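RETRY 2/3 - previous attempt timed out on the joint model. Re-submitting the same 600-residue input unchanged.
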Amino acid sequence: MAELAVSLKELAELEQDRKKITKGQKVLSRIIAALPVIAGVLHLIEYLFVPNKGTNSCTPVYAYLVGLGVAVWGVLYIISFFKSELYAILKYKAALYTALFILLTLYDIATLKTGILIMPYFPWLDRIINSIISDKEKLLDSAVNSLKLLFTGYIGGVLVGLICGIGAGWSKKVRYWVNPFVRILGAIPTTTYMPIIMILATSLFGGSAFLIGLGVWFPVTVSSLTGVSNINTHYYEVAETLGTSKAGILFRVVVPAAMPTVFGGLTQGMSVACITLMAAEMMGVESGLGWYINWQKGWAEFGKMYGAIIIICFIFVMVNNLLNVVKRYVLRWQKGENA
Amino acid sequence: MDRGHIKIDGVTKIFRRTDGNETLTALSDINLDIKPGEFIAFVGASGCGKSTLLRTIAGLETPTIGTVLADGEEIKGSSAKRGLVFQDHALFPWLTVWDNVLFGLKSTGKKKEKEDLANELIKMVELEKFKDSYPYQLSGGMSQRVALVRALANEPDVLLLDEPLGALDAFTRMNIQDVLIDLWKERQNTMILITHDVDEAIYLAQRVIVMSPRPGRIVDEINIELSYPRNRSHSAFIKYRNAILEKLNFAHEESIPDFSI
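RETRY 2/3 succeeded.
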């Protein structure tokens, strides 16, 4: 059979010819992909050369960071001339990063340069960054403590939730005992129990981990219960006629088949865990980033407070990314998951 | 092959209806002897209980009255000796083609002994190239071929086929019908096929059982005395087809004219 062999690159060229993209459009695309560099450089010029208001002072640290961002984009932009995949990504993300630099410029003008947003409530970014650097040991320690508490509670909640949910989906007897707990405990936000736990728990860490676990337990239980209930009964029957034992069916059919639904619960559980973590740290636990924020607020150290908020934001984004990586690996057999 | 003998002895199956207190007789006094290595097909309109009968042989349903014997032993539950293939292929989507095929071998602890057989079967259905693919990457016909191999890799004495080709297009179906014959000749196991496609039954089976609904019972059985591979446009083939279709059309009447070829 005669086949027209076409490489991916050639196909892209063929398709592009059909779309009739003009020279002008191509040049425009190149300019759009370079916009973040332009916006970044403009921001640098604004930061370095526009005079500060009154006694406002700043250091070059912030300029280095912005410069680093601009440089990274610039290097990627040059590489993108040779790598069309990278170019596609840059084109797609360019608008977002340009907007980011514009926002940073506006914020800088509103704080450092003009003082429209007043101190000490709105410190400029350079101040925040310097606060982070000056208190880095304490912040790192707090971040580690927060992560310890988060994962102790989360992993505990996930394990118990999986056992309850899969057990309840699998056996009517287990469902009989799990269901009332799901109905009653699930309806109450876990932060409601916070004051009781703070009084009753012998260790605040243990009590808070328990609360986080409880918050995670509910969505994980419900999602795994749903996941197991929705399994195609033919899977069980085929497995049975292939000579699979009960335990084999549980671990080789039920658990993997329920996974797509379970991951919905794992994601939801993570967001509940983050909320509970912050509440617990702000209300009683004497460590972690939530506690650090409250503590610095008490001293009117708003730079450090914002610094901690930025770090929390970064950590939670990273934790959710990690969860997504795990999800994509576990569900690689699903259409679209590995695209 | 001397294994794979199925004896259905006075089987009646009555279900509780979910919508009330009524009962539904799905099967009424079924008696049948299926020889080891025989290819037998059941045809009938939907609701004639043919799937229930197949599930009873698989051990997934228990007869209300009567017994089903497999090689002289009463069937009391499912067993690796009786493999099952569904219309929806039911491949485990989280496993690759190869791991699907090995699933039963891992369950019965015979992975090492029978891996070569599994490989051979995969080659027979021309899917070696797709061993590492996931089911979502396969077409309907390919999936069904994997499901057949998965069931056969376990070397069942009996292979139960519940309308396995019903969801496929006409060309794929004819193609897999030939695959089925090849696999049967190779493995020489008992094949029990449920289908609503009369041509398929005549093309594949040595004996066709015609069933009628409400209550499900056997109306007639017809031996197909044609050599393999069969010719769908041969006059004898068409004669069998007409005979069976006639049986199916008259199946709702009380008096069934005696008919034999």
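Chain A touches chain B at residues 232, 234-235, 237-245, 248, 252-253, 256-257, 259, 332-335 (CB under 8 Å). Closing ticket.
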